[in-house]
Amino acid sequence: MDIATASIILAIGLLVLLAAGLWVAIALLIVGLAAMSMFSSAPAGAIMATTVWGSISTWTLTALPLFVWMGEILFRTRLSEDMFGGLAPWLTRLPGRLMHVNILGCAVFAAVSGSSAATAMTIGKMSVPELSQRGYDEKQIIGSLAGSATLGLLIPPSIILIVYGVAAEESIIRLFIAGIIPGILLAGMFMGYVAFWSMMNPEKVPAMSERYTLWQRVVASRRLLPVILLIGFVIGSIYAGLATATEAACLGVVGALALSALSRTLSWSTFVDSLIGATKTSCMICFILAGAAFLSTAMGFTGIPRGLAEWIRDMQLSPYALLAALTLFFIVLGCFLDGISVVVLTVAVILPMIEAAGIDKLWFGIYVVLVVEMSQITPPVGFNLFVIQGLTGRNILYVAKAALPFFLLMCVAVVLLIAFPDLVTWLPEVATARN
Amino acid sequence: MLLRRVLDALYLASAALAAILLAGIGVLILAQIVGRFFGIIVPSANEISGFFLATSTFLALAYSFRAGSHIRVTLVVSHLPKQLHNASVVLALSVATVLSGYFTFYAYNLAAESLRYGDLSDGLIGVPLWIPQSSMAFGLVMMTIACLDELVRVLRGREPSFEENTESVLE
């Protein structure tokens, strides 16, 4: 059978399995088995067992459960209230006022949590009632929350960057550092848009109700201190080269427990809940990663990725055309698959193509995550849409419409990353050169 | 029913052990960090934390599967009429049962071979590989049982637990 026919059969097979409601990890394993039995006489079952075992029992991956756990602990603290109380006094004079709490709150929480669903839940739980009570425009509240919560994927620590790093064999530390500038850039663009929108629609922004003196602001800011210390602790130790990603995650768990104890939300039951929650989530992610690892190995036997890479090379596509095509492809794929599945499939099939086109693997990781972020807020399958639907009781089409401007801003951010790759690669280079 | 109680206890006990191992990763890494300050090296901490993660993953598999934590695309099947929807769940569960069973067999083989050849892990402490690897076989046995358990449940006309328990925030 030639490679083109086989790739099409396998791709359709995967889609059918997924659409039939099979669990993602299991679908990946089945397609891997099918691919191996079509192309080689190697013992598929034995290779599956070895690959799966090898892919999960690695030290690099241990950062993942710990960061998941850290997020679960913080989710059960009063961190979000403190963030509102600490940020609000500084924002009353900006056009758009407290609407920026959504964006800054998400960006700050993203810096201690690795997931966008957790970010949306934690910040939204606090900001949505507070903002709508004060008379802010509902659609803007929901849209800015949906958009900025996706920062959880980009701003380190990020679960999905760990998944990419492990699957693509790229340094997790370097990926984390590379995510910082694009994350801040995106948050800045969101804030700029909210400010601009508020100046265009002044009637939809409630008047300044609270006035604060500088001293009151400084006093209120002390509520931000714990979370800022935690961020400094975790990201600082990574950036300074003091800790590996796993060690930073471990320090993060300790810090989160301390913060939880200080805010008197730490009890035996919250501790157990957070641990069980982390166990389930990390099991789910590791299992998908294992399925993808086997699929990657099986793909190696088929030669499909190599064939695709050669095909791309023969077409003499410019990297820009390739990236444009991929962006479109990812947005469509992201409409139906969750972010982690998109990333692991990418690595299994598309990475050789990317390397053949001369695109940097580190840069591509950030690019993929940004595109996956966009897919979080596109219907019909967008994790953030689900979370926010549950939070606000507004249906996902409404939420998606509210989030549309933020989706478009992310498209602009993708173009910026392509035009100025230094946005991604500069900081890791500086950090590595220094250490 | 006794069988029901035994199964539920087994799922829960594996998950509890999985959670303890996950916390164990944290303790191990913390010991490594603290140890470094005092010049103490925790032997093989990196390898062992990797084993903890793998073991935790497989032990939690059945429990998290039933709790609805594992991602699946329900977009298409949820729009099917009731009967077809049920048929799709039966089909998905049958496929999952067969795959888990198949996987269990090879996971068992892997551990059995490591035992036969006396394979050890790298690092200061050479852990016999069959010990952590048998957790993969055990976890997959549990997963196979859980799939079968759900299959029986659905065939008897009840909602599958992973749909009932889904921690979705949807109303």
Task: Break the fold down into its secondary structure elements and pairings.
The complex is a heterodimer of chains A (435) and B (171).
Chain A: H1 3-19, H2 24-39, H3 44-56, H4 63-75, H5 79-91, H6 99-110, H7 116-133, H8 138-149, H9 151-154, H10 159-168, H11 172-200, H12 214-221, H13 225-239, H14 245-262, H15 268-302, H16 304-315, H17 319-336, H18 339-356, H19 361-375, H20 383-392, H21 396-419, H22 422-434
Chain B: H1 2-37, H2 45-66, H3 82-117, H4 130-155, H5 161-164
Helix pairs in contact in B: 1-2, 2-4, 3-4
Describe this structure in words.
The complex is a heterodimer of chains A (435) and B (171). Chain A has helices spanning 3-19, 24-39, 44-56, 63-75, 79-91, 99-110, 116-133, 138-149, 151-154, 159-168, 172-200, 214-221, 225-239, 245-262, 268-302, 304-315, 319-336, 339-356, 361-375, 383-392, 396-419, 422-434. Chain A is an all-alpha fold and 435 residues long. Chain A has 22 helices and no strands. The model of chain A has no long low-confidence stretch (mean pLDDT 87). The two termini of chain B are 32 Å apart. The longest helix of chain B is centred in the N-terminal third of the chain and has 36 residues, at 2-37. Chain B has helices at residues 2-37, 45-66, 82-117, 130-155, 161-164. Chain B is an all-alpha fold and 171 residues long. Chain B is built from 5 helices and no strands. The relative contact order of chain B is 0.15. At the A-B interface, helix 1, helix 2, helix 3, helix 4 and helix 14 of A face helix 1, helix 2, helix 3 and helix 4 of B.
What sequence of helices (H) and strands (E) makes up the elements of chain A?
HHHHHHHHHHHHHHHHHHHHHH
Uncertain regions of chain B: pLDDT < 50 for 5+ in a row? 166-171
Give the mean pLDDT of chain A: 87
Unreliable stretches of chain A, pLDDT < 50, 5 or more residues? none
Number of helices of chain A: 22
| Helix content, binned percent of chain B | over 70%
Overall pLDDT score of chain B: 89
Distance between the termini of chain A: 51 Å
Quantity of strands of chain A, as a count: 0
